[in-house]
Design brief:
Helix content is 47%, strand content 13%. By secondary structure, it is α+β, with helices and mostly antiparallel strands.
Length: 136
């Protein structure tokens, strides 16, 4: 994974850390930021664009994880928004490499304002660790 810059991943995670919702531009920026690593083919790109156009951002985030980290487990959880805590990030997500992987057992988890944002942050954190620098 030498084509992917740790600076790019840090910038992506910083943007995701403050994103209050997923939108087409954010999802495209995440995909473009990690694009040196995913296998682009016409069928995947066509499906992914259909998901974005339908505003199916959770499905698009899952598709991106499954393309970039094939075989990895992913988890997502959403909590109700709290009126008393307007800045509460109500989604949790994580990705984990399968048991036979070189860094198996490591859980890359994070929070986000929405499940798609949290999933993208978990993906970025895992990629940062895989290229050897972490995103924090």
């Amino acid at each position: 994974m030498t084509d992917l810059s740790n600076d790019t991943l840090r910038a992506l995670e910083a943007r995701l850390a403050v994103a209050t919702e997923a939108d087409t531009d954010l999802m495209i920026d995440v995909a473009n930021g990690i694009s040196p690593n995913w296998k682009i083919d016409g069928d995947f790109v066509w499906l992914w664009w259909k998901l974005l156009n339908a505003r199916a951002f959770l499905d698009a985030a899952v598709a991106l994880i499954e393309r970039v980290l094939p075989g990895w487990d992913w988890y997502v959880q959403s909590h109700p928004k709290r009126q008393s805590e307007p800045h509460f990030q109500d989604a949790w997500a994580a990705v984990r490499e399968p048991p036979n992987g070189p860094i198996s057992g490591v859980l890359y988890e994070t929070n986000g304002y929405t499940p798609p944002v949290a999933l993208c942050r978990a993906l970025v954190r895992a990629l940062a660790d895989k290229i050897g620098g972490g995103s924090e």
